[in-house]
Specification:
The chain has 203 residues and is of the alpha+beta class. The chain is built from 5 helices and 10 strands. A hairpin with a 4-residue loop joins strand 6 and strand 7. The protein is globular, with a radius of gyration of 17 Å. The model has no long low-confidence stretch (mean pLDDT 85).
């Protein structure tokens, strides 16, 4: 995939995450032709949208300032928070001071962190080598993250990458994944939605 297409997809995906809209409705919000974004976010895009289209999407999603500042710092890197593997459980990098860093997406903010997928237990949703980004500074109540893919910290100090769904007991969540049994009725200490997945390095 050409670099300009990859960057355009990254920007549009971030705009979708920020607005909660799919490509069609994001295009309508931005006042651009819906097929422009649906083709870009499809399986085999052949061209990137025009600069004017990307600017319209950024403005509609309210991400203009963030992306402009990061485009001026293309070498920006973010800390590696940990690995995610079997059962979509996250293994933290030792200590609070990160020893490893990975390339940042264009929209990276102060709290952006990364996870690297290990093994094939989450195939086909994630492949080994995929880099999953989330914003550790954006910890939200689990009620605000329902049906979204999130990094979830439990009261037991366990960390998972799961889809958050309602639990049966009040104040609890059920965590759903692709190839593992649900974890039911847990208390989430904090939840942070996934903001982007970089699939360029999958194995």
């Amino acid at each position: 995939m050409r670099e300009e297409i990859r960057q355009a997809r990254e920007i549009v995906q971030y705009a979708m995450d920020k607005t909660g809209k799919d490509p069609t409705n994001l295009a309508r919000l931005a006042g651009v032709v819906p097929s422009t974004l649906t083709r870009l976010m499809g399986d085999n895009p052949t061209s990137a949208p025009t600069y004017k289209t990307i600017m319209a999407v950024m403005a509609a999603a309210g991400i203009m300032d963030v992306l402009r500042s990061n485009m001026q710092e293309a070498s920006k890197r973010v800390p590696l928070y940990g690995d995610v593997g079997a059962g979509q459980r996250i293994t933290r990098v030792d200590g609070d001071t990160p020893l490893e860093f990975v390339d940042a997406p264009l929209w990276a903010e102060a709290g952006t962190c990364a996870l690297i997928v290990k093994g094939d237990s989450m195939f086909p949703a994630y492949w080994e080598g995929d880099i999953i980004y989330f914003d550790k500074g954006n910890m939200i109540p689990f009620e605000d993250a329902l049906y979204r893919e999130c990094v979830v910290a439990l009261d037991t100090d366990e960390l998972y990458l799961k889809q958050v769904t309602p639990g049966i007991a009040p104040g609890t969540a059920t965590l759903v994944s692709y190839n593992a049994s649900p974890i039911r009725d847990v208390v989430a200490r904090w939840v942070s939605p996934v903001t982007f997945v970089d699939r360029r390095f999958r194995k």
